[in-house]
Amino acid sequence: MYLNWLKLCCLSFAFIQAMQPAQADPARYPQYTEATCILIADEIARYQQAPSRAQAKQLEFDRHCQAPVVYVPKAQDVSSAAIVTTRPAALPAEGAVHSAATTPLQAQQPASSAVSTLQGFVRVCLQTLQHLLPAGFASLSPPWQLALLAFGLVLLLKLLGSVLFALTLGNPVWLGRLAEKQLASLLRRSFGKQQLNYQNLVLPTPQGGWTEIDQLLITTYGIFVLEVKNYRGWIFGTPDQPNWTVQHFRRKNQFMNPIHQNAKHCRAVAALLGLPLSQVRSVVAFSRRARFKTLLPDNVMYIDQVPRYISLTGSLERPLTDAEIALYKTRLDHYASQAKQLRKLHLAQFAEE
Predict the structure, then answer these.
(1) What are the pLDDT digits (tens) for 243-254?
(2) Taking Cα atoms as reference points, which of 199, 194, 186 lies closest to residue 219?
(3) What is the model's pTM?
(4) Which residue segments constitute the domains of the chain, with CATH numbers given?
C-alpha cells in the first residue's frame, strides 16, 4: 500500500514539474486588452477584504497583463491603426504583437489549447469549491491546483472504498451470499437446463420447526443439499466435533460444524419428498479463501470442485427420471413461492429461542 502511495506522489511531482511555468512569460499566456487589465486592477483594489479573490485576480493580472493588447476597431484604416498601435514601451516577443487586421476575439485566443483547457478546468473547480478551499489556494498556479484537487479526490475515493468495504465485504452475511451466487453460477454453467437449483429455500423440519437451505440441487445425478461457507483463514475440525475453528493470523473464531448443520437440512428435504435419507446427499463447499488444515471427508470441498463431485457420485447411482424430477419440483415450488413469509417464520423461531 505504501509503495502505491509513493508511486502516486512521484507521478504527481513529475506532472507538476512538467506543467509548472518558470515565469509569467507574455508569449506563453494570452494577453488581455488594456481595458480589461484596468478592470482587473480595479477589482484587485476592491477585493482587499477578500484575500482569496484578490490573490486570484493578482495572479491573473501578472500573467495576462504583461503586454496588454491594444484594441483595434475594424473600421480604422491601416495608417490610423498603425498610429494607434504604436507603443513607447517595449513590445513582447514574436507572437504577442497583433496586426491591424487582428480582431479582439483573435487577440485573446490562448497560445496553447492544453494550458487553456487546464486553466478552464481549474477555474470551474475553484468556482464550485471556493467556500471550502483555504485562502492561499487561489494564489497557486493551475498545475499545483490541479494536483492538489486530484490528491483530495484520491483521498475521498479511498475513504468511500473503506466505508463500502465495511458495509459489504466486511459483512459476513454479504460474504455468504457472494459465495452462494458463485456456486449457483458455476452449477448453471456445468449442468445448464438439466438442473433445478433452489437458493435460500425455507422448509419445515420433521420436529415442527423451520430450516433454511443455502442451495438445493436436483438433477438426473440425484438430489444434493449444498451448505456454502465463505470463511477466510485456516479451517480446523473433524466430522464429530460440534464446532469447527477458523484462524486468520492470531484471531480464532468457532462456528457450527457444517456437516451437522447440513444433516438437519438433508432430513428436512428427505421428509418433504418422501425419500430415504440415503438418497439425499450432503455437500459442504468452502471458498478458496479458506485452507483446510485437518483431514476432512470427501463431501467437504472447495466451491470449484462441486460440479465434478456431483458428476462422479451421481454416475454411481440410478439416475432420476423426468417424472420424478417433475414431482419433486411441484412440492418444492410450493415453499419457494412463499420464501419471504417463511423466512420471517424462520427468523422468529430464533427470536423465541
Answers:
(1) 999 999 989 999
(2) 194
(3) 0.55
(4) 19-166 (no CATH), 172-352 (3.40.1350)
